[in-house]
Amino acid sequence: MVVGNSADGSAAPLIDHVAWTLAEWDKDRVSAELKRHGLDARADAAGRSILTKDINGYTLELCGKDPEKRL
Fold first, then answer.
1. pLDDT at site 4
2. What is the pTM of this model?
3. Do 66 and 23 touch, CB atoms closer than 8 A?
4. 10 found inside a domain
């Protein structure tokens, strides 16, 4: 059992990020809209989702429901 994101339970629990799935996924459109609102928008390592930060500094991931459409 993993507790607090570590196998031995020694680390405090944390939230790494929150992800939202968008029904009408268009990576370029989402990125442009975030930038239009003054938010950072960068692709994840695989280029399948867009990462930004919320007002509290948490990472927010936006992606499509269908993995094939995420590209």
1. 54
2. 0.70
3. no
4. no
